[in-house]
Amino acid sequence: MLVGLGAVSTTFIAGVENVRRGRALPIGSLSQMGTIRLGKRAEKRAPKIREFVPLAELGDLVFAAWDPIPDDAYTAAVKAGVLEGKHLEPIAPFLKGIQPLPAAFDQQYVKRLQGSNVKRGKTKRELAEQLRQDIREFKRASGADRLVIIWAASTEVFLQPGPTHQTLATFEKAMDQNDPAIAPSMLYAYAALMESVPFANGAPNLTVDIPALECLADERGVPIGGKDFKTGQTMMKTVLAPAFKARMLGLSGWYSTNILGNRDGEVLDDPESFKTKEESKLGVLEYILQPEMYPELYGN
Q1: Cα separation of 151 and 229, whole Å?
Q2: Distances (CA, A) of 55 to 31, 58, 59, 268
Q3: What are the residues whose beta carbons fall under 8 Å from the beta carbon of 177, sequence distance 6 or more?
Q4: Following CA atoms 176, 181, 183, 185 in sequence, which dihedral angle do they give, to the nearest 10 degrees?
Q5: Summary count for the chain: helices (H), strands (E)
Q6: Which one of 73-87, 243-257, 277-291 scores highest in mean pLDDT?
Q7: Strand order of the sheet with strand 2-3?
Q8: C-alpha–C-alpha distance, residues 146 and 243, integer Å
Q9: Mean pLDDT on 174-198
Q10: Which helix (H) or strand (E) holds 224?
Q11: Helix (H) or strand (E) holding 151
């Protein structure tokens, strides 16, 4: 189940469908193309990860998504413009069959977006309960043995951990009181964990990085993870920065141009959402380069 049915989600769904129809190779997929070495290198035993680990087959995957914009997956993919017609037209009926569920959406957290396909509720707790019902209904209707929920929606405004995030009791009370410290992404994470569904965060939002949800995940034995997909600029930084550090080369700055498209560009045009992204990207370099340890390189 995907939160957001935009460029990321539709590319993922269309890619999976093209691969399982034999129309494409799973390029870029560690689980499908990656190998794992067994024993010594000279033994040349390196089966595919998917042959060694009991992963679900691509043919067994089913999809659902929430989005405040009512476009089906085909329409959303065409608007996103990531994939070409040759990737979309042969699977158009399949994509058109994926209609987004109404989203738990609040424009206060994503100020550049508007949507009509949204849930209504008096409190944030009510919205979370509606999400839980969506999860239960999709599992029943699809016949899926297990679910995973991935946040593939927009970057929310910058939030910092506070008193409402410390325990499950304070978190749930804050939901009842519509506390602005509880962002929509947290409602999805809470709903997932309450339904014992793993949750992955594909944006740099605060989301599950709070004690209340970390403890809930631990108590229920449910995996949580993620802090942005980090497949673009951040990936390049994590590749290049260790090389500079290993050679004891200091950096005076890091300039990059982000060619944003789709709704991501609109969202990050808002300074509050951009700050969330900026903090995440800067944190990567600080962590790798450790400038405080090398005053000769970073003293000025």
Answers
A1: 10
A2: 8, 9, 11, 35
A3: 123
A4: -100
A5: 14, 5
A6: 73-87
A7: 65-66, 2-3, 149-151, 199-201, 224-225
A8: 40
A9: 97
A10: strand 224-225
A11: strand 149-151
| Other C-beta atoms lying within 10 Å of the C-beta of residue 237 | 19
Query: Among candidates 33, 116, 9, 128, which has minimal Cα distance to 69?
Result: 116
The predicted structure's pLDDT at residue 271: 63
Domains of the chain and CATH, by start:
2-22+56-225 (3.40.50.720), 233-298 (no CATH)
In whole angstroms, what is the distance from residue 113 CA to residue 245 CA?
40
What band does 155 get if pLDDT is binned at 50, 70 and 90?
Answer: confident
Give the burial class of 249: count Cβ atoms within 10 A of its Cβ; 0-12 exposed, 13-18 middle, 19 or more buried.
exposed
Distance from C-alpha of 73 to C-alpha of 98, rounded to nearest angstrom: 6
Task: Report the half-sphere exposure of 264 (CA within 13 A, side-chain side).
Answer: 21
- What separation in angstroms does the CA of 281 have from each of 42, 56, 108, 231, 258? 39, 32, 23, 12, 12
Read off the pTM: 0.87
Residue 188's nearest CA partner among 235, 160, 145, 156 is 156
DSSP per position, 51-81: HHS-PPPGGG----EE-SS---HHHHHHHHT
